[in-house]
């Protein structure tokens, strides 16, 4: 698997990320709660997508979801 830009950044700063999690435990806890909610929401969407007849459309919907999530986080954190 080819590493993407985000993976390279994370790997290059792995120790710093671990330290920042320890330094800001409240934020880390919020992230974990958010991940739990996102996991539940994603599972619901996964089941909805499975009901789409066309495999190509299923793939495009998955790409749409991933793209929109990335776009949303960029708009919030990189604006």
In short:
The protein has 79 residues and is an all-alpha fold. It contains four helices and no strands. The protein is 85% helix and 0% strand.
Topology:
Layout: H1 5-12, H2 14-23, H3 25-50, H4 55-77
Structural class by secondary-structure content: mainly alpha
- Secondary structure tally: strands: 0
Strand content: under 5%
- Largest sheet features: none
Overall shape: elongated
Residue-averaged pLDDT: 90
* Terminus-to-terminus distance: 30 Å
> How many helices?
4
In which range does the helix fraction lie?
Answer: over 70%
Spatial extent as radius of gyration: 16 Å
Unreliable parts: none
Q: List the helices and strands in order.
A: HHHH
Kindly give the count of domains.
1
Could you explain how this protein is built, in words?
This protein has one domain (5-77). 85% of the residues lie in helices and 0% in strands. By secondary structure, it is mostly helical. It is elongated. The chain has helices spanning 5-12, 14-23, 25-50, 55-77.
Which characteristics define this entry?
mainly alpha
């Amino acid at each position: 698997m080819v590493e993407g830009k985000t993976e390279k950044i994370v790997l290059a700063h792995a120790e710093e990320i671990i330290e920042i999690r320890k330094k800001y435990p409240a934020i880390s806890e919020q992230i974990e709660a958010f991940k739990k909610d996102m996991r539940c929401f994603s599972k619901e969407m996964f089941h909805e997508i499975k009901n789409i007849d066309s495999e190509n459309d299923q793939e495009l919907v998955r790409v749409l979801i991933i793209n929109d999530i990335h776009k949303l986080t960029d708009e919030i954190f990189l604006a």
